[in-house]
Design goal:
Pfam families: Isochorismatase. It contains seven helices and six strands; from the N terminus they run E-H-H-E-H-E-H-E-H-E-H-E-H. The N and C termini lie close together (7 Å). The chain has a six-stranded parallel β-sheet.
Length: 198
């Protein structure tokens, strides 16, 4: 990487990754769940070692869902499940993947498919002079895909950490990564760590 990098960590929340969460996209399989948590932890550790900014992105809606768009099946299902309500356990970050309290780590809350839509994410990244994004999250075929494509359209270089992502099925995960390879580099933490430090 020749430009300053930042990590975008998408939806590492209890509702998504904890066995008691209401969504659990791709993590009903314990092997997948453990792989994603381990991959995300390695990605965060690398960012902290390299002193890259980390954007911890969470999804959360008002308890009455007045701020939740109903134009897509995925958000209608969110309402039906009663998931990711603000100030509830489900919107909190998984214990193993908590943000650190320092000036390099930020929490961004969104209510759309892309982490950029309606948030300060782009402003924060440009303020920090970031041009290369390292992205992981759940689910690969939804928030990861939308955020990666949005980032590419905004001019960022994007690298996806495959083992820090998961979908509702391996087929969806693999298909999303194959498609995203047109606009981003798909790699693993080990390969990323071998690249020259910024």
């Amino acid at each position: 990487m020749s430009e300053r990098a930042a990590v975008i960590a998408l939806h590492y929340q209890n509702e998504v990754l904890h066995p008691d969460g209401k969504i659990r996209v791709g993590v009903d399989d314990e092997t997948v769940r453990e792989r994603v948590i381990a991959g995300a932890a390695e990605m965060l550790a690398l960012a902290r070692e390299r002193q890259w900014p980390v954007m911890h992105v969470r999804i959360a809606f008002r308890p009455d869902y007045a701020d939740c768009p109903r134009n897509t099946p995925i958000f209608r299902k969110t309402v039906e499940l009663g998931a990711v309500k603000e100030d509830e356990w489900g919107t909190e970050f998984l214990a193993q993947l908590q943000p650190l309290d320092n000036e390099q780590e930020f929490i961004v809350t969104h209510q759309r498919l892309s982490a950029f839509a309606g948030t300060q994410l782009d402003h924060l990244l440009r303020m920090l002079d970031v041009r290369h994004l390292v992205i992981g999250g759940v689910a690969t075929h939804s928030v990861v895909e939308h955020t990666v494509r949005d980032a590419a359209d905004r001019g960022y270089e994007v690298t996806i950490v495959a083992q820090a992502c998961a979908s509702g099925s391996p087929e969806l995960h693999d298909a999303a990564l194959r498609s995203l390879a047109l606009v981003a580099q798909v790699t693993d933490v080990q390969s990323l760590a071998r690249e020259k430090a910024l």
